[in-house]
Amino acid sequence: MSLQPRVVNATFIKSAQSIADSLEESMSEVVFLGRSNVGKSSTINALANRKNLAKSSATPGKTQLINFFDIEYRLGEEPYGVRYVDLPGFGYAKVSKSLKQIWQKNLVEYIENRVAIRLFIHLRDARHPHAKIDDEVAEYIDGFIRPDQRYLTVFTKIDKLGQKERAALKRDFPDAITISNAKRSGLERVHREIFETIFGPIGDHSSGEGA
Ligand SMILES: Nc1nc2c(ncn2[C@@H]2O[C@H](COP(=O)(O)OP(=O)(O)OP(=O)(O)O)[C@@H](O)[C@H]2O)c(=O)[nH]1
Ligand SMILES: [Mg+2]
Question: What pTM, to 2 d.p., does this model score?
Fold first, then answer.
């Protein structure tokens, strides 16, 4: 059995209005971004194994600030710290406004300029895998992502799909990770991606623990 990173501690640290009043860049950051109501806050709670660490709600627009959470992983006995960042969602704009208008200026500034960001986790609703706004976000991030940063697509709410829809999603996005926060499925793969992006391949950490 290979080692699996697990969260042993999660703490809310601060809410910020903009990059100017954000925390010092003392830890590597994982940002969760996506449409309002896609499940950003719920995903943070599921990963951290805490019910109300990040505030989630059935009403879109719940998260309005940039929220920082310090997360302590363990791999075997070794501790590894990362910071999760919960962001406000972008709107359900049906009409074609520019992405930057939809998203607030403060958010765009954070996403483009924050040096500590190492991983963008773009959450997409498994029920709407071809939403244009999500394609635009993917393209937008591709426009400025640095070599030391990674971008990951994760489909949420997979529990809402039937067998046929799941098969179609798999066919259209063969490599994508799918999760359910309701059923707590798919989370190990996300942990692995987070951990390996920031700390390197898990195989390289195999000190101590036997096979
Ligand atoms: N069935 C199901 N519901 C989910 C899942 N993830 C989130 N939800 C529900 O979706 C709704 C929105 O979840 P949030 O986590 O608040 O979404 P958010 O992306 O943080 O939303 P904003 O902060 O408004 O941008 C809540 O009612 C959650 O319970 C999931 O995997 N499956
Ligand atoms: Mg939220």
Answer: 0.93
